[in-house]
Design goal:
two-stranded antiparallel sheet, alpha+beta, five-stranded mixed sheet
């Protein structure tokens, strides 16, 4: 599991995917989210504006990212 440090209290899911280089653009992140490819804390997340906070675990293709 990779640990991802954010400087603010939260980051939007679509922004996080770009930040960790899973998506190359906001449009690509949106498609990945709407296609059900992203899980947050074990549940498929379909909201690209979902606030991701420290302690959350984001999963993409069986790779987990712990937000710090």
């Amino acid at each position: 599991m990779d640990e991802i440090k954010i400087e603010s209290m939260f980051i939007r899911l679509d922004q996080l995917l770009k930040y960790i280089s899973v998506a190359s653009s906001g449009g690509e992140a949106k498609v990945m989210i709407l296609d059900g490819m992203i899980k947050v804390n074990g549940k498929t997340e379909l909201q690209r504006g979902k606030k991701i906070k420290p302690g959350d675990i984001v999963t993409f293709k069986n790779k987990q990212y712990l937000i710090k």
